[in-house]
Amino acid sequence: MTDVEAPDVTSVWARHYQFYRGSGRQLAVGIALSAVQTMTLLPVPLLVARAIDTAIPGKSVQQLLIIGGAIVGLTIISALITLAARRVTLAVTKRATRDLRLMLLDKLYSVSRQFHVVNDQGELHDRLVHESDRVDLMTSTLIADLLPAVVLTTGLLAVLSIRSPLLTLVTVVCTLTLFACNRLLHSALRQRFIRYQISVGKFSRGVLHTLRTQDLTRIQGAEAVDRADRAAEATELQVASQQRAMTLTIHSVAQQTLMAAVGAVILVVGGTLAARGRMSIGDLIGFYAGFALIRGPLTGVTAAYPTLVEGRESLHRLYLLLDHPDHRPYHGTRHIEFSGHLELCNASLAYGDRPVLLGVSLRLEPGRVVALVGPNGSGKSSVVNLLLGFYRPQAGLVRADDEDYDDLDLSCVVSRLGVVPQEPFFFPGTIRQNLLYGISPPTADALDGALYLSTADQFLAFLPDGLDTALGDDAMVLSGGQRQRLAIARALVREPCVLILDEPTNHLDITVIGSVLRNIRCLDPAPAVLIVSHDVEAARSADEVVRLVDGKIEQPQPASASEQPLRSRPSPP
User: Fold this and answer.
1) Domain spanning 9-322: which superfamily?
2) What is the Cα–Cα distance from 128 to 219, expressed in whole angstroms?
3) Contact status, residue 128 vs residue 105, Cβ threshold 8 Å
4) pLDDT tens string 438-451
5) Any residues with CB less than 8 A from the CB of 453 and at least 6 apart, and which?
6) What global pTM score does this model have?
7) Higher pLDDT, 30 or 568
8) Among 46, 229, 358, 573, which lies 20 to 30 A Cα-Cα from 416?
9) Mean of the per-residue pLDDT values of the chain
């Protein structure tokens, strides 16, 4: 996902305009306020000239007080209007950034599982968070700072041109020279920023790797290797950061020097005109006062140039992500009241050129337990991926309640599935928050029932805080079996009509699995259950055993009748 080609500037800005189409009125208000703010400052150079040419020679203290008071009053009014304009424009830019971020999140929801599998999650995180933040800073600077600066500079130059067209021409020429110098630094700024961005990403992902692999690092005795890798990344970041900072410093110093040179040119040219009697001292000082008002916005514009360059690069990269052609395999829209019948019909699947399933047929029905067994690599997880709609078979169909997945809005199916993956994931939070993730808060009886059915209530009773026990990253404070039971409870609290247990014997023994299945059989209605395992012992409580070898189904075998629940309960949920 690393893209460093130069963006098409026109297309990037034209496309970004879509986020401001509904805010035209607010932007107009902001521009109008900026114009009013400019108008409040226009009299300042004239007042300064009046003080120099009239009040001081006439020794009129009263007139000087009036002029000074007027300048202070106009400055205060200008500041208040600036705050109002800033408030309006910031509301527009922050809303646009929010809309961009939501669009990026929608893109991540819409892409296929394979997209997330093959792309670096750390880099995607950086794009959504840090790059969108740079775009936010760029647009805020552009609309809230640069736009008022352009309006103010244009207005003041118009007033100054009345007092001295020659000095105004000198100012304009010097200002254009200033912006030409900015363009010369553009390539260096862009390259330094890209290198810095890449280095930050490497170091960030390296730190995440260190945090996530502490156990493996210690088991392998790889602390020295890991530390050396992080040190190399930190050194690369140091060099890139130093070069970027130095380029920004050169840019800043160059702008300050050029701005001082512009002031010196105005002073020399204006002083020469005044010495030859072609303008008064008051006009010269008034012009210089007007230039001082322009100098602030011009300095802000030039100082913001690196922000615009970096923001535009980030905007380009974000649009590359938005334009990525990947999408989910199914786009149906029809809703059904899914009852729990799932079916693979002669389905074949390949990852690239590697076939993993060949003509597989499988049917799940409510109240029945089906065990899909086979050696590792036989394609069992691929069957689960097809049932979940993660992938589309190259041949054959996937059906829910005898309806093709192609026609359905799969949310109505997936919302009725309970899935326990091989390695259940838990986020930092309480046990309760993890169990109820993604569903409306159920009744206390439904949660208690799920804990009972999964046998998780047996160990929760011994935790000091019970359901409010805080879990760290991926619940490492719990044993594998405890995490597996909680994962089953999380699947059951949804009251699913299909329950999929992927390799449950990884962390639970056969006795516990049998107990869970016998408890589930007591539900009314009982869900369809699919047990996926390489361990044939996990299939002994199933109604049907399907053996998968090298992507093909062998002849189904009948399983022994299920036993009664091991744990008695008057009215199991």
Assistant:
1) ABC transporter type 1, transmembrane domain (1.20.1560.10)
2) 34
3) yes
4) 887 766 788 889 99
5) 488, 489, 492, 516, 519, 520, 523, 572, 573
6) 0.76
7) 30
8) 358
9) 83
